[in-house]
Write a structure and sequence with these properties.
With 126 residues, the chain is α/β, with parallel strands linked by helices. Helix content is 40%, strand content 24%. It has one domain. It starts with 7 loop residues before the first strand and ends in an 11-residue tail after the last strand.
Length: 126
């Protein structure tokens, strides 16, 4: 099973989703390819944790639910980070093996990925 640390898991009753937050700290300069790869790896790990049941083992109330993985960034993240999350979200649903894994998993009803900026959430610097 995937090994990942979620920064926060909450309910979103408005969208009927359990939200898994992945928080990426600032400050942001131009993100290196290494940093982008780490974010991408974190997204794949989150996908695996949801589909393979690691999330359910820690949060039993997540079983069979709609899950939203939301990448929140401190300050204003560079467009490269936002685009990475957008492309990952599209890739997961467009690639047959990933969409099939979501459909066949007993642990998740639906799965989507968003970045906090597009979702209207920007974290301040701390």
């Amino acid at each position: 099973m995937a090994k990942i640390t979620f920064n926060l898991v909450t309910e979103d009753p408005k969208n009927d989703e359990l939200v898994v937050y992945l928080v990426e700290p600032g400050p942001w300069t131009s993100p290196s390819n290494e940093r982008l790869k780490k974010i991408q790896s974190r997204l794949y790990d989150a996908f695996d944790a949801v589909v393979d049941g690691a999330l359910t083992s820690k949060y039993p109330e997540s079983k069979g639910r709609r899950i939203r993985v939301q990448v929140d960034c401190h300050d204003s993240p560079p467009e490269a980070v936002l685009n990475l999350v957008r492309k990952f979200a599209t890739f997961i649903h467009d690639r047959n093996e990933y969409s099939k894994a979501i459909q066949q998993s007993p642990f998740v009803k639906d799965f989507r990925v968003v970045n906090g900026t597009d979702f209207g959430r920007i974290l301040g610097s701390e």
